[in-house]
């Protein structure tokens, strides 16, 4: 039996709620979380030359910078979407402007994610 997209969403939601009712979410996501956090340590000290405390301090700053860059991009997209929504063309215009919105959101950042 083929499920519709809406039925697939409901089935996935049911599975997620069932899983989280039986297990601690921190337990089920611990491997992904540790891999994600290790990425920042690798970014700031690829040769493992720094002392562990300094590597951890720099990794924490790199992680904060990563999330700050995401917040900046999100704010830009929301601002642009608000302007587009206020223009009177609603959802259709927002859909046709999606590539422009994404370009605007990433335009003023450097390769390392820091604002220009």
Structure characterization notes:
The chain is mainly alpha-helical. 77% of the residues lie in helices and 0% in strands. Helix 3 crosses helix 4 (52-86) and helix 4 crosses helix 5. The mean pLDDT is 84. The protein has a domain at 30-107. It has helices at 5-22, 25-28, 30-44, 52-86, 90-96, 98-107.
Question: Outline of this structure?
Answer:
The protein has 116 residues and is mainly alpha-helical. The protein is built from 6 helices and no strands. The mean pLDDT is 84.
Structural class: mainly alpha
* Termini separation: 52 Å
* Low confidence ranges: none
Determine the strand fraction and express it as a percent band.
Answer: under 5%
User: How many strand units?
Assistant: 0
Quick one: overall form? Answer: flat
Query: Helical segment tally?
Result: 6
Give a short account of the largest sheet. none
Helix content: over 70%
Work out the radius of gyration.
20 Å
Mean pLDDT: 84
Topology summary:
Layout: H1 5-22, H2 25-28, H3 30-44, H4 52-86, H5 90-96, H6 98-107
Helix pairs in contact: 3-4, 4-5, 4-6
Protein traits:
116 residues, mainly alpha
């Amino acid at each position: 039996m083929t499920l519709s997209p809406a039925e697939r969403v409901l089935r996935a939601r049911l599975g997620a709620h069932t899983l989280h009712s039986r297990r601690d979410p921190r337990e089920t996501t611990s491997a992904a979380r540790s891999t994600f956090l290790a990425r920042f340590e690798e970014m700031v000290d690829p040769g493992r030359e720094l002392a562990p405390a300094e590597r951890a301090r720099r990794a924490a700053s790199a992680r904060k910078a990563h999330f700050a860059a995401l917040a900046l991009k999100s704010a830009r997209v929301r601002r642009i979407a608000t302007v587009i929504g206020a223009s009177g063309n609603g959802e259709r215009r927002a859909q046709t402007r999606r590539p422009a919105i994404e370009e605007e959101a990433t335009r003023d950042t450097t390769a390392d994610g820091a604002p220009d």
